[in-house]
Amino acid sequence: MILEARDLTFRYPRRGSPPILEGAGFSLRSGERLGLSAPSGLGKTTLCKLLAGLEAPERGQILLDGIPLSRYRGFCPVQLLWQHPDAAVDPLLRLRATLEEAGPVDPAVLEGLGIRESWLERYPAELSGGELQRICIARALRPGLRFLLCDEISAMLDLIGQAQIWQFLLDQAQARGLGLLVVSHDDALLEQVCGRAIGWDALMS
Amino acid sequence: MRTWDRRRSTLLLLIAAGAALLAVSVAGGLLTEQAMATDFSRRDLAPCWGYPFGTDWMGRDMLARTLAGLSLSIRIGVLTAGISAAVALILGTVCAISGGWADAAVSWVIDLVMGIPHILLIILISIACGRGLWGVTAGVALSHWTSLARVVRGEVLQLHQAPYLRMARKLGVSQGKLLRLHLLPHLLPQLLAGLILQFPHAILHEASVTFLGFGLSPEQPAIGIVLEESMGYLALGRWWLALFPGLSLVLVVALFALLGERARLLLSPASAQG
Question: In whole angstroms, how large is the CA radius of gyration of chain B?
């Protein structure tokens, strides 16, 4: 499968604000791992939201195998992992309900991510950012998943935690043939995780 | 430990206020017969041990009449607040979810209803519905849903922008499950507090419409009727006819306001822990 963005233009709805993205193009194939590194404030997170279908572009298209992403019903094959996992889970729901929002989760995934059974009985405010991020990853890893967009997902973890999570994600990506987009400021991490890293300018052209 | 203690005392106060209101409404319901009984051998008694609230010019026990009136008011209050909360929840949610012309239409109706003075609207609807119990209930219910509907609509619109709700949609969660899992738990505290805080409004409006003669019929022991009748005897020095029923009405309204305020403190995430 191939995830493509063509001629993307997007601006936040404020009068006279300049476009965040203008005519941006992008493509990612199944099994490919692409690293994206760029200074703050250029629109990396916005690009991720557009690619995951969480925002609608002003102009341009996001295509999955040539079909617009918005046409897919049910579980979206492109999932975004947020930089701040605490925003991506409902604060009034116990984490078991959040985790199984889209359906039951494979116990092997829970084990691989080091998610403890006792976390699932708690509310999001009672877990740390790293623990919540693991739950968000487990929630996204469904059979229908094809592309995973990782927006600074390990910024809140210590080095050992980072290594664990990335090792697990890379294994999963390999086994399922996922396409990964990894956004980070950490060039060493990108080099380790992705075969290739590109800068913002290369992405825009 | 301190926070737990405050939470417990808030809860106790809430239960006490609820129990007092329930007691008044049950006692009043049982005393309705007694409230109508006339006995000319005990006319115009000032408050004494036998009749703490005194008796009126027909020898009716004012305590029984007050309790029966308040009980009727509370029952009307529960009914009307329940109806208006349900209307507010449905319209507010429909508004926010469907958007477009449905949202514009409902918002316009909300503005329209809010633009008319409450008491005027209640009188109009009450007369149109043939006065009496149903006239008053319809009048109060149909005029009080607007502010709560606005709150619900705003809340749903805001929730729709929350990242976790957008994520849930992308995870393929159905509309019904979205409503049950993510929207209702967030709306419930607002709705419940709004519902309880609507009682005092409903009761006061019911009493005033009845007092003005557009509500319940004179033979019913409603608090508005009791107050309206006693007005004529104030000049004759029979102060107890208006004072005790009036004070009791204020007390019941204050109890409901307290109940709503406490419920809001307990349920709202911002203050629930403190």
Answer: 22
Nearest to B69 by CA among B250, B228, B222: B222
Is B188 an 8 Å CB contact of chain A?
Answer: no
Claim: this prediction has a pTM higher than 0.80: no
Per CB-CB distance under 8 Å, the chain A contacts of B165 are: 90
Residue among A54, A91, A93 whose CB faces B170 most closely: A54
Residue B56 has φ and ψ, to the nearest 5°, of: -100, -170
C-alpha torsion B21→B27→B29→B35, nearest 10 = -120
Count CA atoms closer than 13 A to A192's CA, side-chain side.
10
For B4-52, the pLDDT digits (tens) are 667 788 788 888 888 988 888 888 888 877 777 777 777 777 777 877 7
CB contact under 8 A, B171 and A76: yes
Closest by Cα among A143, A70, A133, A69 to A98: A133
Full pLDDT tens readout for chain A, 205 residues: 899 888 888 888 877 788 888 888 888 999 889 998 888 888 888 889 999 988 888 888 899 998 998 888 889 999 999 989 999 999 888 899 999 888 888 899 999 999 999 999 998 888 988 899 999 999 999 998 999 999 989 888 888 888 999 999 999 999 999 999 999 888 888 888 887 778 887 776 6
Sheet-wide strand order for A179-183: A78-81, A147-151, A179-183, A33-37, A196-199
pLDDT of A138 reads 93
Chain B residues in contact with A88 (beta carbon < 8 A) = 163-164, 167
- As assigned by CATH, the class of the B7-36+53-273 domain is mainly alpha
A113: DSSP letter: H
Bridge partners of residue A67, in order along the sequence? A64
Q: Where are the domains of chain B?
A: 7-36+53-273
**Token reading at A45:** 């997170």
The angle, 0 to 180 degrees and rounded to 10, between the axes of the packed helices B132-144 and B118-128 is: 140
Query: How far is B151 from B194, CA to CA, in rounded Å?
Result: 9
Provide the 10 A C-beta neighbour count for residue B74.
25
Residue A197 pairs in a beta bridge with A35
